[in-house]
Amino acid sequence: MIRISLNESERVALTRLRLDRSSNIGERAYYVLLADTGKSAPEIARYLNRNIITIRLWLNRYRKEGFNGLKAHRASGRPAQKAPAIESYLKELLEKSPQDYGYQESGWQINLLRDFFQKKEISACENTIAKALNKLGYVYKRFSKTMPLNAPSATKKEMKIGEIVETIKQYSSQDIEIFFADESHFSNQPYVSRGWFKCGEKKR
Q1: 3 state DSSP class of 13
Q2: pTM of the model
Q3: What is the pLDDT of residues 42-82, one digit of tens each?
Q4: How many alpha carbons fall within 13 Å on the CB side of residue 103?
């Protein structure tokens, strides 16, 4: 049986700690307070409908470490190595266009980033890349719409069409049916309307 005997100051501190709702530390403090009343670990587990292993874990931690023992301990293990490498590459990649790296798209997409990392022999799932982007302050949003600097005016377009029609008339006296297409989406690639940009940044 795990025996715990508290002094008055410890009871006051644990009672105050029990009111903490920001984490599970308040419930752990309650385990210790109940143990101080003479309840055993199995009795506390039945009373609170908790796993007896959990109750024993926190009671033993309190006995060994005091209040610090009630805090969640980080799991030990090898430090993450993949995430820093991914974040380092992302900072460089998103400063440039995908076209600078041989892709045809205008904005960075998750599938492009995954392809880039695979070429670097770095295995990264979509969720890992998205988390890294969010951590670095990047958001997925639409491009700002704007006319190209070299786009002709409506008057120039009308004049050019007139020139084409007059040229065709020289070769035929019959009525001619003319078809035209809006050049704004004239591409052999899907129209990219979104990409990953730094929060607050606008790209055209």
Answers
A1: helix
A2: 0.41
A3: 999 999 888 888 899 999 999 888 888 888 765 555 545 67
A4: 19
Helix axis angle for 25-36 and 41-48, nearest 10°, is 130
Pseudo-torsion of CA 185, 187, 191, 192, nearest 10°? -120
Indicate the DSSP class of residue 147: -
User: In this predicted structure, what is the pLDDT of residue 190?
Assistant: 47
Give the other-Cβ count within 10 Å of 158's Cβ.
11
Residue pair 28/73 in contact (Cβ under 8 Å)? The answer is no
Alpha carbon 171 to chain centroid, angstroms: 61
**Residue owning tokens 């958001």:** 139
Q: What gap in Å lies between CA 108 and CA 73, rounded to an integer?
A: 38
The structure tokens 């700002």 sit at 144
pLDDT tens figures, 100-156:
888 887 788 888 888 888 888 888 888 888 888 888 888 877 666 666 667 778 888
With a CB cutoff of 8 Å and minimum separation 6, the contacts of 28 are 58, 62, 70
Tokens of 17: 């700690």
Provide the CB-side half-sphere exposure for 41 (13 A, CA). Answer: 14
Phi, psi torsion values for 139, nearest 5 degrees: -130, 155
For residue 197, what are the β-bridge partners?
139
User: Of 195, 87, 80, which is closest to residue 131 (Cα–Cα)?
Assistant: 87
